[in-house]
C-alpha cells in the first residue's frame, strides 16, 4: 500500500524520526510565542486545541457536529472527543513528521490516549516554568489598544494614564482578564490540571522544564537545546537565517 493509500485508509503513518512536542505552561508564560518558534524551526504544524476545536466546529464533519453540539450546550469537550479530534488532526499529511501540541493533553486521560497514538520515543514534553506572582506582575503591566487590539507592556503597572497606542494613537486600556484576581483564579484552574500532568511526565527522559522568566530569545534557545538533547542530535538543526 502506498503512503497515500495508507492516508486515505486512515492508517497511522509517521516517518521514522517523527517528533511530537508537548508544550506545557501557564497562561501568560509566553507559551504561544514559543510554540510558533518551535513549530517553525522543526517544520511541524502548531496544533492548538482551541484553534482546532473552532475549526472542527466549522468543518461540517461528523466530529465537527459533535463539537458544535457540545459547545452549543455550554458543556466542556470530553477527553474522548478532544482525543478523537487531535487524532484526526495528527493523521493529516502535514503532521507526518510530527507536531507541536499546544493545549493537549490537558488531563491524564488525554496523556494516556496520546501515548497510544504516537510513538512514545518521539514524544518530547517541555514545561515553561513561571512563578504565579511573576505572571500576575506581567499581566498588571499589560495594556491593549481598544481600537486595533495590539498589546503593549507599560513601565508602571498602577499608572492611571496608560498611554496611547503606537499604531493608531487611541488610549491603551487594561483588559478585564488581566486583573490580578482574575489572573490568579485562571492560574489556579490551570494548576489543578497541569500539576498531575507534570507528575505524569516528569520522570521520563523526554521531559524538560525551562525557566520561562528569561528573555524570550533565551527561552527559545533553552527549548531548542533540550529538544536536540532529547532527540539525541548533537546540536539543534541549523537556523533558516
Ligand atoms: Zn491602536
Radius of gyration: 20 Å
Looking at CATH, the homologous superfamily of the domain at 19-131 and 178-231 is: P-loop containing nucleotide triphosphate hydrolases
* Highest CATH level, the class of the domain at 19-131 and 178-231: Alpha Beta
Report the span from N to C terminus: 39 Å
Helix content: 40-55%
CATH architecture of the domain at 19-131 and 178-231: 3-Layer(aba) Sandwich
Strand content: 5-15%
Strand order of the largest sheet: 2-3-1-4-8
Notes on the structure:
Helix content is 45%, strand content 15%. The protein is of the alpha/beta class. It has a domain at 19-131 and 178-231: Rossmann fold (3-Layer(aba) Sandwich), CATH 3.40.50.300. β5 (142-145) and β6 form a beta hairpin. It starts with a helix and ends in a 10-residue tail after the last helix. Zinc ion is lined by residues 145, 147-148, 150, 165, 167-168, 170.
Amino acid at each position: 500500500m502506498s503512503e497515500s493509500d495508507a492516508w486515505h485508509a486512515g492508517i497511522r503513518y509517521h516517518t521514522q524520526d517523527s517528533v511530537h512536542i508537548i508544550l506545557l505552561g501557564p497562561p501568560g508564560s509566553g507559551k504561544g510565542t514559543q510554540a510558533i518558534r518551535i513549530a517553525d524551526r522543526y517544520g511541524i504544524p502548531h496544533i492548538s486545541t482551541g484553534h482546532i476545536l473552532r475549526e472542527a466546529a466549522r468543518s461540517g464533519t461528523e466530529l465537527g457536529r459533535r463539537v458544535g453540539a457540545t459547545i452549543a450546550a455550554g458543556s466542556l469537550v470530553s477527553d474522548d472527543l478532544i482525543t478523537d479530534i487531535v487524532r484526526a488532526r495528527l493523521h493529516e499529511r502535514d503532521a507526518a513528521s510530527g507536531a507541536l501540541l499546544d493545549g493537549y493533553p490537558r488531563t491524564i486521560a488525554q496523556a494516556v490516549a496520546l501515548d497510544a497514538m504516537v510513538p512514545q520515543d518521539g514524544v518530547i514534553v517541555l514545561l515553561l516554568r513561571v512563578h504565579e506572582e511573576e505572571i500576575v506582575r506581567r499581566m498588571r503591566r499589560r495594556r491593549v489598544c481598544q481600537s486595533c487590539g495590539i498589546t503593549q507592556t507599560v513601565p508602571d503597572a498602577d499608572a492611571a494614564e496608560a498611554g496611547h497606542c503606537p499604531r493608531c494613537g487611541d488610549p491603551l486600556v487594561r483588559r478585564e482578564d488581566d486583573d490580578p484576581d482574575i489572573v490568579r483564579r485562571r492560574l489556579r484552574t490551570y494548576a489543578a490540571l497541569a500539576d498531575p500532568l507534570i507528575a505524569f511526565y516528569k520522570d521520563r527522559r523526554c521531559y524538560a522544564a525551562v525557566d520561562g522568566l528569561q528573555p524570550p530569545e533565551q527561552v527559545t534557545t533553552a527549548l531548542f537545546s533540550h529538544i536536540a538533547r532529547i532527540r539525541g542530535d548533537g546540536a539543534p538543526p541549523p537556523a533558516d537565517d
